Amino acid sequence: MGAVAKMKTSPIIAARHKTELDSSPFECIFANYVLSGELNVQQGLHDFTAERGDLVIHESRYPVVMTEKCDGQFECLTFRFDRNQFAAFESANGDLSCALISADSMIAPLTACLGYLSENFLVIPDFEAVSLFNVFASLLPVAALAVPKEHERPARGNVAQRSLLSDLLDYINANLDAPDLSPRSAAAKLGISLRYVHKLCAEKGMTFCGYVTSQRLDHVRKDLCLPALRHEPIYAVAARRGFGDPSAFNRIFKERFGITPGRARALCP
């Protein structure tokens, strides 16, 4: 289900790269509660620096770089959770992804739980440690929802955001015919959270699925006029572009272009 450890180290830089992620069969959520020094976490467009009393959440699916900063020894509580523990929360609220929960915005029960664990970690019995771990796991999603919205904004500015949107659209357009094209596959490719994929689309005034459908419809209309496909059934042409339900395809095609697919083919030069 997970693990917790209290760590003291000299300042180091730790990184988890894509090749390591690809070889891991597990998906985890990590949380680091800083007891002394500072911890900088960079994952996707997120770039957070946690100080004493702050909590940083990051995940195992994307590359991450963590830099410890301190005058002497860096100390923190480190938690690892099986991502399945948060399946119900993520289904309702989106991914529990990289976030900074500062000491002044942390909910009181979580502050109390972490404070007790950090002070008594080496002396509490195992059963009590397990109970506190489970309490922390139940409080973590609640605390993440309470994070002020400014923490959700990328720290690298609008230029990087526009570049990432361009990368997202390039990825979609290059993979329009892929059956597994989805917001999750795009997030994995770009190294960002699923929630941030939806945020990028929203800022362009669209949804991921809406953009994919629109692009696929444009391709189908062009395909209907190709000499090599002129005698192929319309449903087969549509299926090439990911439309498996003929009736649903006919409906959205007419909504998009104002004419039926058959009429569109008849108007081809």
Mean pLDDT: 82
Please estimate the helix content: 40-55%
Whole-Å distance between the termini? 62 Å
Name the CATH superfamily classification of the largest domain.
Regulatory protein AraC
**Secondary-structure element series:** EEHEEEEEEHEHHHHHHHHH
Please tell me the CATH architecture of the largest domain by its name. Answer: Sandwich
Determine the structural class based on helices, strands and strand pairing. alpha+beta
- How many H/I helical runs? 11
CATH topology name of the largest domain: Jelly Rolls
Biggest sheet character: 5 strands, antiparallel
Shape: elongated
What low-confidence regions span 5 or more consecutive residues with pLDDT below 50? 149-157
**Alpha carbon gyration radius:** 24 Å
Annotation, overall tally of beta strands: 9
Placed side by side, the strands forming the largest sheet appear as 1-8-3-6-9
